[in-house]
Amino acid sequence: MAVLELVNISKHFGAIQAVTDVSLSLNRGEVVGLMGDNGAGKSTLVKMIAGNFRPSQGTMRLDGAEIVLHRPVEARQHGIEIVYQDLALCDNLTAAANVFLGREIRRGIGPLSILDYKAMYRRAGEIFKELKSETPPRDFVRQMSGGQRQAVAIARTMLSDAKIVLMDEPTAAISVRQVAEVLNLIRALRDRGIAVVLISHRMPDVFTVADRVIVMRRGRKVADKAIEQSSPEEVTGLITGAIEQV
């Protein structure tokens, strides 16, 4: 059974039709590349999955049961996490403090409880090890590379037993070596049975790590193919409109 199904999902903002009649499914342990030009509807689609927007019409199912999300916190409660392009990290905090931000481990009782930094460092270190990342839990985020920052943002999603992680341009504006780090993080999520939706403009990244590619143009889904059955040339044609649909 698919972990997520969208059935005839549409979204309009007044007279603007951002997403039109999109259906797709997402399986456990699958990486899906979501591609399209600016304004194609990718971000709107992902924000509906993440609970930022309610669909104007259509149905969303999680593990076969229909769900209606009103807020992002409800999506997180259902195991849907999103890592935005800006990562929303606090540079003046350690990696571990960022991982546990808003979900800190405490020891003691009631008003006498204090933050258990040792437990947070230990657990954050375990998560980084699971992700095969060498990110030091005690280092401050401001000292970190782009790849390490992505590791911190992804580690945060693993505290809540995520079923689905939505990633918005995770390899934009970082070095080649750091891109390899991020792609390895995505593989680590997949190996844990987590479904990943990768929004990206970088064709090599999608064809390196994704199992399937979905292409959107003008708010509609124009392709949904296994990666080995497509090619960068075909996807480019679909994005630009040189190829209408496959």
UniProtKB/TrEMBL annotation:
Q: Give the record's keywords alphabetically.
A: ATP-binding, Nucleotide-binding
Could you name the domain of life of the organism this protein comes from?
A: Bacteria
Give yes or no: UniProt keyword Nucleotide-binding.
yes
Task: Write down the Pfam families for this protein, in alphabetical order.
Answer: ABC_tran
Boundaries of every ABC transporter domain copy: 4-243
The molecular function terms of the Gene Ontology recorded here are: ATP binding; ATP hydrolysis activity
Q: Of which family is this protein a member?
A: Belongs to the ABC transporter superfamily.
Supply the PANTHER family for this chain.
CARBOHYDRATE TRANSPORT ATP-BINDING PROTEIN MG119-RELATED, SUGAR ABC TRANSPORTER ATP-BINDING PROTEIN
> What name does the UniProt record give this protein?
ABC transporter ATP-binding protein
What organism does the UniProt record list as the source? Sinorhizobium medicae
